[in-house]
Amino acid sequence: MSLRRGLPVVAMLVGASGVWALAPFDDPFPHLDHEGLFPLCEGCHRGIETGIEEDVYPDPATCTQCHDGDREKRVEWATASRRPSNLVFSHREHQESVQQAGDSTECGTCHQYPSEKDRMAVTPAGAEACLTCHAHDAPDHLSYERNCLACHDPVWEATDLTVTRLRDFPEPDGHSALEFISEHGDLGGITRSVCATCHSRESCERCHVNASSLTEIADLGRDTRILESVRDKPPEYPEPTDHERSGWEWSHSARALDDTGGCANCHTQSSCTACHRDVANPEVASLPVSVPDGPSGVQLETESIRVHRIGFETSHGARAATDERSCSGCHEPTTCVACHDGPTRPEFHVGNVLEMHASDAYSNATDCASCHSTEVFCRGCHIGVGLASQGRLDVAFHNSRPFWLLGHGEAARQGLEGCVTCHSQVDCAQCHSARGGWRVSPHGPGFDGDRAEAANRGACLLCHFGGVEP
Fold first, then answer.
1. How do residues 261-293 score in pLDDT, each as one tens digit?
2. Is 376 exposed, middle or buried (0-12, 13-18, 19+ CB in 10 A)?
3. Nearest-angstrom CA–CA distance, 13 and 22
4. Is the pTM of this model over 0.70?
5. Strand, coil or helix: what is 87?
6. Based on the number of CB atoms within 10 Å of its own CB, is 347 exposed (0-12), middle (13-18) or buried (19 or more)?
7. Positions of E strands within 217-323
8. CA-CA distance, 288 to 264, in Å (whole number)?
9. Partner residues linked to 152 by β-bridges
10. Which residues 6+ apart lie within 8 Å of 131 measured at CB?
11. CA dist., res. 256 & res. 263, Å (int)
């Protein structure tokens, strides 16, 4: 492997231990038995200086120079090879960089044999060896403050590492702390430079229900080995400290509105709809949806939650009249009807509503239809009290205006929905049909028939039965 270009010399050796120092050192070659035969390490490991990978370890044929069966017994020895690693390091480039800096190094600087005469007592280079020179930049190998990718490949690129080796990766201090899970998102923009050394996207998706929408997670690659490692680990959702406050169940709205994205780390839409049935609420709709084989998010039990204060049942009128959207988050119209429908039930309307409701009806108040069928309920009442229209000239219902018929066009254009409460198309066609009756045009001055027909020809055919005349 060659070192990534452009990295400072200080960073080269900081991560040089990589995963090489994770297992106890088992010397495949009896170095101490041969300490008198090889004056220089480079005699067998000349590839360290030349950078030729094949020459880093000696050819087994070299052994036959001594172990020919006469001078020494023959041996079966297979040459060593690099251990699978995510380490990015080149002996040659590191040595050149050190020399350019005016320093010198030898094998024992990193491989830490006790003395020159004991140079064959070699040990693998570890992070401690790196820190003998680089402590000023890296006082601790496993620290969140450094750029791990200066010396290590992201885990998903280190394809020769096995699942077992990945599970043996060292854990940085603090990972096992109880507060780490709830606080690790505040470590800053280190996801790629630090987390990617050990974690792939699957590590985050184990818990984060909103993983697909977070750039920090999307920046990580995918790795089936990490998926296998975390498959049997249940998601963890530690309860934030503010959630532990008394009354949080019905006072959390301010936090939810201010930081819906934060809620989405742990909560799906089902968390809200357990209490808030209004899934059209934009804050609820912005939360992720649970998917099969994905994290389930926090599951809430709502049986014991009391949202309204004691006595709210008899004092909620003003709130319901001014904040209907909040009510609809939990309640259907039938909730109101269950109490307010019938002569023996609590009165929903204010006193004298019959005498005062006309202004609401004329203003197209939409809340009437929550309980009343305008065509059946309103017409039934108006007929019963003698206010319904009994013909074109009976104008009692229309504000008792004697010439209502002559000026009704404006009202019809502004609120035809109110007209159809009592009137059908036949009533209008008696005067306004193009094929019969009085043939009075319902269209105002400057009406553009061609444009209206192009927009909705079906509406024209309601009156123009045989087709629209040019």
1. 888 889 988 888 777 665 567 788 888 888 777
2. exposed
3. 16
4. no
5. strand
6. exposed
7. none
8. 7
9. 87
10. 14, 138, 139, 141
11. 7
